[in-house]
Amino acid sequence: MRIVEKAQLMSAAEIDRTLQRLAHEIVEKSGGTKHLALIGIVRRGVPLAQRIAQAMRGIDGVTVPVGILDITLYRDDLSKVAPQAVLRSSDISFPVDDMDIVLVDDVLYTGRTIRAAMNGIFDLGRPKRVTLCVLIDRGHREMPIEAQYVGRSVQTSATEIIEVRLREIDNEERVVLVDRVE
Amino acid sequence: MTHRFRDLLAIQPLSADEITFLLDQSRPFQEIQRHPLKKLATLRGKTVALAFFENSTRTRISFGTAASRLGADTMNLQAEASSLKKGESLLDTIHTLSAMKPDILVMRHASSGACDFVARHLDIPVVNAGDGTHEHPSQGLLDALTIRERKGTIKNLNVTILGDISHSRVARSNIHLLGKFGCHFTLCGPAMWVPRELEKIGPPGAPIRRVFRIEEALEGADVVLVLRVQTERLHEPALSAGDYIHLYQLNARRLRGAKPDTIVLHPGPMNRGIEITPEVADGPQSCVLEQVTNGIAVRMALLYLLTVGVPDEGEPPAPDTETPPRNRRSTDVKDSSHAPR
C-alpha cells in the first residue's frame, strides 16, 4: 500500500488567513472575549488554538486563556490502539466553570475525538457553553457532533487522509489530501 | 518513544529509557489527582485483582484507588481472610483468582521472587507490589517521580539511605532505579542492617558506600531516604529504640548538616519519634505526602500501560506491534533463580 498526495487543500498563507477569519468569527459570535477560553486538542489543535488566541489579541486586545487537552484517556477505542498510545500532558490552568469554551482541533472526522474531549472537560468542571472550531471538516460523522467554526469543508472518501502539517510540529505549513493506493 | 511492558516485576531489568518513559507517562495522571472529578472511564470493564499475601494498607489502597480512578473494578484478596490460612498453595490460590478472569494481577508476597514465579504461570500482566526483601518497583518509581519534581532531575544525585537496608525492598528498588541515572549512594544504619554485600547490589558502576555515623552520611546529600524501623527487628541483635534514636534518628539538627535543599523521603508508615522526628517529617524538606499522591499517579500509569493496548483475545495483533512470544511454562517451576526462598 502506498500513500500518494492528491491535492494541496491549503497553503501556509491560506491557513493563516483562515485562522484570522475563525478568530473574528469566534469573537463576533461569542459577543466578546470576557468568558472565552480556547482548548486545543493534542497535538495539532494546540498550535492552532495558540494562533487563534494570538489573532484575538489583535482584534480585541484581550488575552484569551489557552488550555491543552490530551484525549487519549477518554478514547472509546483504547483496546484497539496499539502500540500503547503515548500520553501527553494536558494543561488547563484556568477553571472551566461557567466559561465559554471553544475546542480547537485540526480535522473533524468521526466526532469521536470531540466526544472524548468533552468528557475530559466535564471532569474539570461545568462550562457554560462548549463550541467547536476546526480547520478542516471532512465529513463521515459517527456522532451527533457539529463544528460551529469551520475553516474549510472538504468532501472526502473513506480511504483518503487529510494531513494538516504545521510548522510547530511538522516543520512545514500546509494542508494536503492524501490517498492510500493498493 | 514508546515502550511495551508485559509485567512489572522489578526495576533491575529495566533500562534508563524505559524508566524515564514510565515516569513521563505518570505525569498526565498526576494532573488527574488535581481534577475535581478524578474518575476516568479508561479501563471501564477491566478488572484488577489485588492479591496481598502480606499485610499492607497503603500500597493496597493506593493500587485500589488507582484502579478505581481509571474506571476499573477490583477483586480483593487479603492474607488474613484468604484460604491460605486453610493451607491452599500459592499456585492454587493464584489459579483460582485467575479463573475469575481479572485483566491484571497486582501482588504482594512475603517471599522474594514470588511474583516472578506467579507471572510465569499466568497469561495476564503481573505487577509486583513488594516481594520479600527483593523489590517494590512501584515505590521506586513514585520515589523517583517525587525526586524529579523537587530536584528537576534524578541524574547524578547524592542519595543517602538510612535504616534497615538489608531487609528493605524499597531501598533495593531505589538503588536499582537511581543507580541507572548516575546517582551515588551512602548507606547508613546499625552495622547489622548495612552489611558489606550491599555495596554490590546496585547496577554496574553505581558507587555505594557504607557509613556508620549519620552526620557523615548526611553531608552533601541531595536526597535522604529514611526507612521505617521495624521495631520488632530491633530485638534481633539487641539494639534498644533509645540507642537507635540516639545514633540514627533523622532530626532537624542533623538534617541541617546536609544541604538547605536536601529533600527527605519516607515510604511510610512512619514511626514518628523513632527513625524521624515530627519536625523533619512535617518540615518543608519532607516529601512524604507528595510521595503518597504520586503513588496513585504512578500506579494509574502502570495499570494503564499494562492493561491497555493489549489486543483483545482472539483479535490478531497488528503486524507492526506484535510482541515477541514469551515463554510461559505452565508446569516448569524449577527456575531456581526466581524460586521463592
What does this 3D model show about the protein?
The complex is a heterodimer of chains A (182) and B (341). Chain A has helices spanning 12-30, 45-60, 112-122, 167-170; strands spanning 2-10, 36-41, 66-69, 100-108, 129-137, 149-153, 160-165, 174-181. Chain A is 27% helix and 31% strand. The longest helix of chain A is centred in the N-terminal third of the chain and has 19 residues, at 12-30. With 182 residues, chain A is of the alpha/beta class. In chain A, helix 1 crosses helix 2. Chain A has one domain (12-156): Rossmann fold, CATH 3.40.50. With 341 residues, chain B is an alpha/beta fold. A 5-stranded parallel β-sheet of chain B has the order 7-6-5-8-9. In chain B, strands 2-1-3-4 form a 4-stranded parallel β-sheet, sandwiched between helices. In chain B, helix 1 crosses helix 11. The model of chain B is unreliable at 310-341 (pLDDT under 50). Chains A and B meet through loops of A and helix 1 and helix 11 of B.
Largest sheet of chain B: 5 strands, parallel
Share of residues in helices of chain A? 25-40%
CATH topology descriptor of the largest domain in chain B: Rossmann fold
SSE pattern of chain B: HEHEHEHEHEHEEHEHHEHH
Question: H/E order of the elements of chain A?
Answer: EHEHEEHEEEHE
Please provide the count of β strands of chain A.
Answer: 8
Uncertain residue ranges of chain B: 310-341
Strand order of the largest sheet of chain A: 3-2-4-5-6
Choose one word for the global shape of chain B.
globular
CATH homologous superfamily grouping of the largest domain in chain B: Aspartate/ornithine carbamoyltransferase
> How big a fraction of the residues of chain A is strand?
25-35%
Number of helices of chain A: 4
Report on the biggest sheet of chain A. 5 strands, parallel
CATH topology of chain A: Rossmann fold
- Distance between the amino and carboxyl termini of chain B: 38 Å
Strand fraction band of chain B?
5-15%
CATH class of chain A: Alpha Beta
Domain count of chain A, please report it. Answer: 1
Structural class, from secondary structure content of chain A?
A: alpha/beta
Termini distance of chain A? 5 Å
